[in-house]
Design goal:
Elements (H helix, E strand, L loop, with lengths): L3 H10 L4 E4 H4 L6 E4 L22 H9 L2 E7 L2 E6 L1
Length: 84
């Protein structure tokens, strides 16, 4: 399992717009805050391209899932990543 900081860096390296932690966002917890609307090639709220991964590009979803985390939409432009 990757730590929060390690996963944030791995996501950034893949082109994900990581804004900070969920604490920075103001909702607490030990999650990661992502500006999904900044990278429509990786995230699509309507999920039409990637139904099996709920609108997350499959290789990004696999990176997160394989390391003990999961994605959750906060709103159509904001994605959070949480530990399982």
């Amino acid at each position: 399992m990757m730590t929060q900081e390690t996963l944030m860096n791995a996501l950034k390296a893949r082109g994900v717009r990581v804004c900070g932690t969920t604490k920075d966002f103001g909702i607490g917890g030990e999650g990661i805050w992502i500006a999904a609307d900044s990278t429509p090639g990786l995230f699509q709220y309507d999920g039409q391209m990637w139904l099996d991964t709920f609108g997350v590009e499959p290789s990004i979803d696999k990176l997160v899932e394989d390391n003990g985390w999961y994605f959750e939409w906060y709103d159509p432009g904001t994605m959070m990543v949480w530990q399982n």
